[in-house]
């Protein structure tokens, strides 16, 4: 899962990010309201872990902004505020869960997983594009009913392009999607070209058409046109 953590307490932010990353998630982290708003406007996430008290804004306002985007993000509020009124307000504004500090990391991880399971169960789990079918629950890809095997990063990248088909995806956006904050450490984005080359080869060998199109100087577009 790709998770955005919004928390201004540095030590807690690091602990959450380290734990959720160790559990196999791709995590991005921010400590300010405005930075979080910018991230949410540019990128997609499976879940947002949201603190209510930020140095430059109120978490409830950020929750309203998330819902105004009409995205399907799961949202877990984490807060030291234990008042029933805050819990009710947060849930009524669209949060999926409310966890009071302090909490165990394992409980936070379990609540995030439960939210994602519910959202997957309530939606059409299959992503279909012409002869390509992706099952996000089983994490499988088939081409004309023949399963094609990908590495985890290849799979995540393919899903990202299929879901955003027709859009131009920059190399930077693709890198951040599958590496999160660690993408900033890359000297170049040549590894994106390598992953796309491998994905394209596997799809073509399975009988798929070639849907990856290079956009010179920018990135790639996944489209049948």
Automatic annotation (TrEMBL):
PANTHER family: REGULATOR OF RPOS. One of its GO terms (molecular function) is transcription cis-regulatory region binding. CDD domains: trans_reg_C. The keyword Transcription applies. It comes from the Bacteria. This is Response regulator transcription factor. Residues 2-116 form the Response regulatory domain.
């Amino acid at each position: 899962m790709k998770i955005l953590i919004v928390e201004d307490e540095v030590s807690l932010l690091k602990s959450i990010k380290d734990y959720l990353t160790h559990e196999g998630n791709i995590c991005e982290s921010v400590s300010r309201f405005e930075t979080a708003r910018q991230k949410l406007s540019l990128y997609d996430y499976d879940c947002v872990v949201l603190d209510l008290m930020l140095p430059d804004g109120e978490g409830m306002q950020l929750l309203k902004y998330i819902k105004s985007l009409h995205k399907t993000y799961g949202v877990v509020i984490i807060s030291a505020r234990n008042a029933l009124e805050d819990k009710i307000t947060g849930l009524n504004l669209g949060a999926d869960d409310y966890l009071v500090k302090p909490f165990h990391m394992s409980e936070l991880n379990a609540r995030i997983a439960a939210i994602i399971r519910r959202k997957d169960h309530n939606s059409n789990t299959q992503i279909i594009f012409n002869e390509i079918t992706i099952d996000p629950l089983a994490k499988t890809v088939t081409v004309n009913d023949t399963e094609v095997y990908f590495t985890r990063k290849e799979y995540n990248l393919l899903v990202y392009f299929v879901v955003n088909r027709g859009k131009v995806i920059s190399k930077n956006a693709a890198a951040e999607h599958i590496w999160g904050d660690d993408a900033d450490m890359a000297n170049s984005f040549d590894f994106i070209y390598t992953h796309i080359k491998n994905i394209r080869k596997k799809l073509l060998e399975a009988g798929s058409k070639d849907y990856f199109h290079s956009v010179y100087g920018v990135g790639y577009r996944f489209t049948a046109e």
